[in-house]
Structure formats: structure tokens, C-alpha cells
Design brief:
By secondary structure, this protein is mainly alpha-helical. The chain contains four helices and three strands, in the order ααβββαα. The longest helix has 36 residues.
Length: 123
């Protein structure tokens, strides 16, 4: 599988739902808050995971968000639009959080490199 497909599988595995939809619904609530909504908007919502049966992407699983009225949404952005929220603000918040994680990881790597250099120099 391609690197993109492996990342997708890993991300879906990380978000696997527990009996009540757990992680995906928590992430959806956080996204809606970032879009200007309230976390309680997802009360009564559930998630379901389906597997593609045919085509080039057969076997790939997809996560769907289901409203209490039975409407199905394929993404957090679709849910945000359903509630007439600013999905672009949510995306900007997600991007900022991701950039902060990357910066933190880079700082950790640099700190470890510096520690190794110092240890090597003291020998």
C-alpha cells in the first residue's frame, strides 16, 4: 500500500470507536467548538464504520457520523456545515494544533541531539 493509504489506515485505527463512538465523537465535538459551535451539538450522535466493497479502494474503511434523525455525514466539515458553522475556522484551528505538535517534536529532537553531542564531547 502507498504511504498515504498506510497513514489513512493508521489514522482510522487510532480513531476506532468504542461502544459509544468515543474518540471520533470527541474529535467531532472539539472540531465543532473550533468552528464556533458547542460540544453538546453531538449529543445523541453515533458513528459507524463501513468498508468499501469494490473499486480500486476496496477494503478501505470509512467513518460516518450519524445524526439522531438518521442523516449520514462523511466528514467533520459536513457536520459543521449542517450546523451552519464556519468549517474554515475549524480547519485553521486543526492546522495550528498540528503545526504546534510538529514544532514540539522538532524541539524534542533538537534537545536529544544536543544532549547526545554534549555526551559525546565529554568522553
Amino acid at each position: 500500500p502507498s504511504a498515504r493509504r498506510r497513514r489513512r489506515r493508521r489514522r482510522v485505527a487510532d480513531e476506532e470507536e468504542d461502544e459509544e463512538g468515543g474518540a471520533p465523537l470527541r474529535k467531532l465535538a472539539a472540531f465543532l467548538v473550533a468552528c464556533g459551535g458547542q460540544a453538546g451539538l453531538v449529543d445523541g450522535w453515533t458513528t459507524t464504520q463501513g468498508s468499501r466493497a469494490s473499486g480500486v479502494t476496496a477494503g478501505t474503511s470509512d467513518l460516518y457520523y450519524l445524526s439522531p434523525l438518521g442523516a449520514r455525514f462523511r466528514s467533520r466539515r459536513e457536520v459543521a456545515r449542517h450546523f451552519a458553522l464556519d468549517d474554515e475556522a475549524g480547519l485553521a484551528a486543526l492546522k495550528a494544533a498540528a503545526e504546534a505538535r510538529v514544532a514540539s517534536r522538532r524541539a524534542d529532537v533538537e534537545a536529544r541531539k544536543g544532549a547526545r553531542r554534549a555526551a559525546d564531547e565529554s568522553r
